[in-house]
Amino acid sequence: MARRKKIYEGKAKTLYEGPEPGTIVQYFKDDATAFNAQKKDVIEGKGVLNNLLSEYFMLGLNNIGVPTHFLRRLNMREQLVRSCEIIPLEVIVRNFAAGSMASRLGIEEGTQLPRPIVEYCYKDDKLGDPLVTEEHIAAFGWASQQDMDDILSLALRVNDFLSGVMYGVGIKLIDFKIEIGRVYEGDYQRLVVADEISPDSCRLWDLETGQKLDKDVFRRDLGSLTDAYTEVARRLGVLPKGTAPAKPTLIN
Known about the structure:
Elements: E1 6-9, E2 13-17, E3 23-28, E4 31-34, E5 39-42, H1 46-63, E6 70-73, E7 78-82, E8 85-86, E9 89-96, H2 99-105, E10 112-122, E11 131-132, H3 134-139, H4 145-168, E12 171-185, E13 188-194, E14 202-206, H5 216-219, H6 225-235
Antiparallel strand pairs: 1-2, 2-3, 3-7, 4-5, 6-7, 8-12, 9-10, 9-12, 10-11, 12-13, 12-14
Catalytic activity: 5-amino-1-(5-phospho-D-ribosyl)imidazole-4-carboxylate + L-aspartate + ATP = (2S)-2-[5-amino-1-(5-phospho-beta-D-ribosyl)imidazole-4-carboxamido]succinate + ADP + phosphate + 2 H(+)
Enzyme class: ligase
EC number: 6.3.2.6
């Protein structure tokens, strides 16, 4: 399709005007970042894998009645999504201690939590996406109490879906983050799961070996990120079993 006007460029995706009012074309880049973009590389094929995987998860959520902004995939790197007003929060659901939670609370990585814990971070790269409470969210007007009730419900439904899907292919869902958008239909507003769901935004460990199959491979220099994402895609049937992983090209 013809290239349209660029709306926004982030660390992993570029957004363009969609072909119809109220739509956006989401382009998945090969850029990989970590530690608030302090570590950067370009990894060939990453954007293609994330596009395919995000399509898989968003379609699955749509099919079980969890609303998302996803409309359809356009090609190997682009998908058409509904335009929405993003609530400035990262919604994090944790099933096991890992990453910042493990270091912040002194809990051994991999410890199963007594129940899923939902955390919120204020989306601001300059501030490092700080952890915030519902008191902060209410005080600064980022979301209403009804919004927060709906966000919590959506996050836990996404968690149930992703946990089951991953467990079925021998992967443990450690944690994940999502973004939520507001869609307006006349005077009516509803919340939808937006942005993407991919190994960029989840921690995924092999159920038996504990091997990491997510962006921690890049963060911690544990091997090929493309191989890890390809393995997730293969297990989910997004790629044919005989597909050979692309060799990653690293550009400093």
